[in-house]
Design brief:
Two copies of one chain form a homodimer. Helices cover 20% and strands 28% of the residues of chain A. Chain A has 215 residues and is an alpha/beta fold. The longest helix of chain A has 11 residues, at 132-142.
Chain lengths: 215, 215
């Protein structure tokens, strides 16, 4: 059965999935890049960017797992770009250049319609305006029997968690304090929503946590 | 210089230092004992309870560090007991029986005066009614050049953090979801308050995090 999975989503020890004051210059918010330090050094990251080398080890294994068996992605609009409100034109084509790292259909949640956008390497961005359940249904249909990865951001993951739609999560907890920003779990009662923590593995630059929805 | 230290304070991965609905039957709140599982199995815990055996390893080392070099403790009133409002009498003598594990002066924050209470093994509970700064000044004076350990609970630690009075923290992050309860860091901007995360060590049953106030 196709699952909805959050994989390799980084949070700070004080629970933030992005720093404060996100904008075009700070897509992860101020101090947000510190969240990604577990990923930047891995062989997996370097390969994604056409480079050789990089570290192998626990963090690298965890990064690779996040791309295995994924047939479609869902992203919140802010993960696609800094544009707010109606699209002024179609010039914004994502943060990732002409060949994004997804290589699958990607369903972007937005209130503002836009035609699908086909990129190099198999990524096609579809803009979904009729809500998170519709995006999930479309992503599952497009995933071809593989799983759907919910990429974020934090606010989007919270919406899917509150609706009980996420099957499991792998969080990379980074030993940094952001102090403010986009909280992932604050005020969400994940126990009452049916989730439990099923594992914890120490990586080189993050502690990897596994949460699952109880059957 | 005498420091104010939080040591071995357990939190869930969703950030709670105690579960919901604390009362006499549930001093750590519902599901709260899951927070202490890193400590219950250690040699240090067993020795404190007059038993032999127990596990050695990282968690045990961390537990022992929490008692080394401590000359006085500060506790919030709920950590001392379940009594709320004025003391009806002096029959409540703490959760720990006649020989509590502190073996130092312990300053208990309360709005309701009560004479000092001397227990076996060197623990003397002093009830402080004039605020957190007074309790800290009294504890530092009593510590004889050693450090002061702030035992909790979460609400008490938050008060001292918000006032910038805590020098460092060692948190034992347990891989459990409590869902609700007493949050430790939610809504406190520890970065703005001057704290940073200086280390992270994987234990057998918890991930040990170290936070320090920047100089």
């Amino acid at each position: 059965m196709t699952r909805l999975r959050v994989l390799g989503f980084a949070v700070s020890v004080d629970g933030y999935g992005a720093g404060p004051r996100q904008d075009r210059d700070n897509p992860l918010g101020v101090r947000g890049p510190a969240l990604m330090e577990w990923f930047f050094h891995t062989q997996a990251w370097r390969e994604m960017h056409g480079e050789t080398g990089g570290e192998t080890g626990v963090d690298n294994d965890m990064a690779r797992r996040g791309f295995a068996g994924i047939g479609a992605w869902i992203l919140g609009r802010n993960m696609f770009g800094p544009v707010r409100g109606p699209w002024p034109d179609e010039s914004w084509r994502g943060w990732w250049g002409e060949e994004p790292p997804y290589h699958t259909p990607v369903f972007v949640l937005t209130h503002h319609p836009r035609p699908p956008l086909e990129m190099a390497g198999g990524t096609v961005f579809h803009f979904v305006t009729d809500g998170i359940e519709s995006a999930l249904a479309q992503a599952k249909a497009a995933a071809g029997g593989r799983d759907v990865r919910l990429g974020g951001g934090a606010a989007t993951i919270r919406q899917y968690l509150a609706a009980g739609l996420v099957d499991d999560l792998h969080l990379a907890v980074r030993p940094v304090l952001l102090g403010s920003g986009e909280p992932l779990m604050h005020g969400l009662d994940l126990h009452a929503l049916g989730y439990e923590c099923t594992g914890c593995v120490a990586g080189e630059r993050a502690t990897h946590l596994f949460l699952e929805k109880r059957a």
